[in-house]
Amino acid sequence: MSSGSAQLKNIDGNDWLIVVSIEEAAKFLFVSQLHIRRLLERRVLDEVLPRNPSGDVDIDGTSVQAYRAKQDAAVRAYLDSQTEESGPSGP
Questions:
Q1: Which of these, 2, 3, 45, 46, could form a disulfide with 60 (CB 3.0-4.6 Å)?
Q2: Three-state secondary-structure class, residue 16
């Protein structure tokens, strides 16, 4: 991720994850923080447990990147499917 605030979190003494906050994920995905919370509730994005000492949510940066890649691919597929014949009619 290009966010300068992403951090590494040691999750079990051996493995490290890139974690981002809800705010950072929202900025990276161009969505609201509420939308990020909904994605977490639906387990589309992965929360890293245990929570940090302040109680803030840490999100696995890899899941955020994967979600963005999936959304970008869907947009590209839609745009590629549009032709003059299949596009919306205009004035």
A1: 46
A2: strand
